[in-house]
Amino acid sequence: IVKQEYGLDLLYLKHFIDTSCSRQLKNYLLEALPWYRVTYTSMGMEHHTPRWTTVFGKDSTSTPWHGYDKARPRAIPEILLRLMRQVEEVTGETYNFALVNYYATGSDSISYHSDSESFLGKNPCIASISLGGSRGFLMRHINYKNTAQHEKFLLEDGDMVVMRGQTQHQWQHSIPKRKSAEGRINITFRKGVVKYATQNYNQYNVGKGPMYRWESGQ
């Protein structure tokens, strides 16, 4: 499915990953990756990220891996690196970050936002893969108060959404809460072009709190 209207440029690929493979990948990542429940302060207020997060990769500058004062970046694991290369073949883009979110229950969510940070370049192309339970994916135009432009997708196991062009500048997206939901892992591949990208992603996806591991779904 391709959506190109009102500044939206979106590619929606159903079952990009075969169901049997996606289930195995989800279970492996859940237990193999380090997870964080980040707390951070913004504008004098403390915020708690309502989902589990982790991040791998480094921006495209020549800064060495040890040259970051806030948090040293971590290399993308081989299994995610192979998946990233497959995604690059489809999108024609190159990536250097893998952000991974785990929505353990229906209470885990992400509010409306856009990934329009300058450290992602002029028109970022972001690929998002879903593993596990289905969740609603809502999109609205940035002028949502004055326009009826909305989109809604049900992201299922193995689906991939690619947001490109002016999408991040013209649209916002969210994963709202729901009463009950099977656990869902979301992998997003993106490209950071300056050093601040690495610092920002580590601050908001790793933070300074404890690291957790999942074992047998707990």
Automatic annotation (TrEMBL):
GO terms for biological process: DNA alkylation repair. 2-oxoglutarate binds at residues 101, 103, 113, 173, 184, 188, 190. SUPFAM superfamilies: Clavaminate synthase-like. Residues 94-193 form the Fe2OG dioxygenase domain. Coiled coil: none annotated. Pfam families: 2OG-FeII_Oxy_2. GO terms for molecular function: broad specificity oxidative DNA demethylase activity; cytosine C-5 DNA demethylase activity; ferrous iron binding. PANTHER family: ALPHA-KETOGLUTARATE-DEPENDENT DIOXYGENASE ALKB HOMOLOG 2, DNA OXIDATIVE DEMETHYLASE ALKBH2. This is Fe2OG dioxygenase domain-containing protein. It comes from Kockovaella imperatae.
